C-alpha cells in the first residue's frame, strides 16, 4: 500500500468516526443560507519598449451562495459569470470539532498563504508571479483549466492545541491535507486522488503572527508521448512563508520552489523529450490601513491603505531566466459595498535589463 492509499484510508476513517460523533448535535442545528457576490471592472495600460497597449474588462462577476444546514454541515456554490461562465466552488463540509472538518468537492488547494485569500482580500489586482505559476492559477505545466487556485478533491482540516497569546485565545497549529484530481476546476479526474497537497500554519506565541509551510506532490498527463515513452510529467512544489495581520498592518512573504516536467520538441527529429525544470519565486507584500472619518450609522468606517510589493520569479532556474516586479498601489473602501484600487507595476527583465510599466485601476462592487 502506497502513501496515497494510506492517506485516503485515514481520511475515510476520520469521516466515519466524525459522523458517529455528530449525530448528537445534528438536531440542534439551524438552517442558514446567504447569497452574495461581487463585480470587478478593470482598466489596464501597459508601456514598454516604445509600445503602448490598454484594455478594459469585467474581470470577475461572482455569484456566491453559502449555506449552513446544521452545526455539522455547511456548503458553498460559487460561479464566475464573466467572459466564459464557469463553476468556481462547489463543496460540502462536515465540521465535527475545531480539530477536524472534512470537505469534498471543488475548492482551493491547501498550498501557500496567498492562495487562501479571496480576491476581495488580496492587496493588489494580481497574485505574485510564483503563486500564479505554482499554486494553480496559470500553472507552469501549461494545464489551461487548472485555474483560480482550485481543484476537485477531498480535504481534512483542523485547529489543534488551543493557547492563550497575550490574552487572546488561538490555536498553536492549523492544518489542511487533501487528495486531488490534479486536472483543475470542472475537469473530471482521470485518476482520482493522484495529487496530494498539505499546509500547516503555526502560531509561534506572537500575537497576529503566522508561520506556514506547504507542499504539493503530484503529476499530470502530458499532451504528447515523449520519445522515451514518458506519458506523465511531475509537479513537486514546496512553499514556506510568514504573515503578520492586525487591525492596521498586513505583512506577508513567501518563498516557493518546485520541479515540473515539461515537454520539449526537437525541431530536427520532431520528437518530444521530457525536461524537469526548476521554478523559483519569492515575494514580500506590506500594507497599512488608515481609517478615514467617523463611523456611519451602520458602523462602517471608510478606510484606505497604501501597498508595496517586491516580487521575484524565475520559471527555469537553470536557464537563468528571471523577472522582478516592483508594485506600489492604494486601496480605498469609501463604503461597505465599494472598493477602488490603483496600482503601478515596474517590471525588470533581469536578463536583458529592460523595464516596462503597467498601470491598473479596478473598481469592485460587492453585494
Specify the oligomeric state.
single chain
Average pLDDT, rounded to a whole number, is 87
Helix-strand string: HEEEEEHEEEEEEEEEEEE
Give the full name of the CATH homologous superfamily: Porin
Largest sheet: 16 strands, antiparallel, barrel
Fraction of residues in helices? under 10%
Tally of DSSP helical segments: 2
- Counting helices, strands and paired strands, the structural category is mainly beta
What's the number of structural domains? 1
Report on the structure:
The protein is mainly β. The protein has a single domain (about 5-20, about 60-365), classed as Porin, CATH 2.40.160.10. It is built from two helices and 17 strands. It has helices at about 5-20, 130-135; strands spanning about 30-50, 50-70, 75-80, 85-95, 100-110, 150-165, 170-180, 195-200, 210-220, 230-245, 250-265, 270-290, 290, 300-315, 325-335, 340-350, 355-365. The longest helix has 20 residues, at about 5-20. It is globular and about 70 Å long.
